[in-house]
Amino acid sequence: MEEVKLFATWSSPFVKRIIWALKLKNIEHEIIYEDLDNKSPELLKYNPIHKKVPVLVHNEIPICESLVILEYIDETWKDARPLLPKDPLDKANQRFWAKFSDEQVLPSFYGYYMKQGNEKEEAKETTLAHLKRVEQLLSKNKFLSGESVGFLDLAFGWLAENSRPLEVVTGLKLFDEDKFPNLCAWRDKFLEVPAIKESWPDQETLIVKYQEIDLSEGK
Predict the structure, then answer these.
(1) Half-sphere exposure of residue 2, counting CA atoms within 13 Å on the CB side?
(2) How far apart are alpha carbons 183 and 156 in whole angstroms?
(3) 69: closest CA among 16, 129, 120?
(4) CA 160 to CA 10: how far, in whole Å?
(5) Would strands 55-58 and 61-64 be described as parallel, antiparallel, or unpaired?
(6) What single DSSP character describes residue 143?
(7) How far, in whole angstroms, is CA 41 from its chain's centroid?
(8) Closest by CA position to 69, among listed 134, 4, 146
């Protein structure tokens, strides 16, 4: 019998993409929520290098790093809804843009909401430039991975899930329907996918949780 455990925190954008993948593929799993201020012996055992979530444990074998975990899930449960394309070039392109999401878009996006003064304005301009690139990726398809949700949508899913709650809480808006019509449409479609919509925390819960976090320094 398959045993799948996911060590997680509610707030990690990297964790949610794994939860979505498991749900999309209908893989039974257990989620173990961690307190990162008091990390469990199990987390330290399974991820002694980075000591971070997410960690997927499949039959007692740990896999770390969210994009690596996504590929592992896709290759291990091949018969259930593929996430990555078969074509090597298409697959390489999706991997490239997934790294762009994590290494470029995500830091500048959160920087806009958390930084002050000149650093805040710099983060805003950088983020808008990144979003223009993502907008272009959506010029031909409903989703970043094509006609249905896939690997690249899960990689960028943090952007769809967190953008509106942060706008509500801080009053700061980056998603403009005139500037980014494709991106806004993608966000709405992505959040309506049942596996995404049914995942906790939902949009309203995220708003409440962000309100509990001190974001005042970012205003």
Answers:
(1) 12
(2) 11
(3) 16
(4) 16
(5) antiparallel
(6) B
(7) 26
(8) 4
DSSP at 105: I
Would the CA dihedral through 29, 34, 36, 38 be positive or negative? negative
Give the span between the Cα atoms of 58 and 48, in whole angstroms.
17
What is the rounded CA–CA span in Å between residue 77 and residue 217? 44
Q: What is the mean pLDDT of the chain?
A: 93
Give the relative orientation of helices 66-76 and 88-100 as an angle to the nearest 10 degrees. 150
C-alpha span between 184 and 159 (Å, rounded):
11
CA-closest candidate to residue 167, choices 128, 206, 125: 206
Closest CA to 53 of 32, 79, 30, 81: 32
Residue 122: how many other CB atoms lie within 10 Å: 14
Q: Can you list the alpha helix ranges (DSSP code H) found in the chain? A: 13-24, 41-46, 66-76, 88-100, 106-114, 117-137, 151-155, 157-170, 181-192, 194-197, 203-212
Amino acid occupying residue 70? L
Three-state secondary-structure class, residue 172: coil
pLDDT tens-digit profile of 176-212?
899 999 999 999 999 999 999 988 788 888 888 888 8
* Single pTM value for the model: 0.93
What's the length of the chain? 219
3-state secondary structure of 57: strand
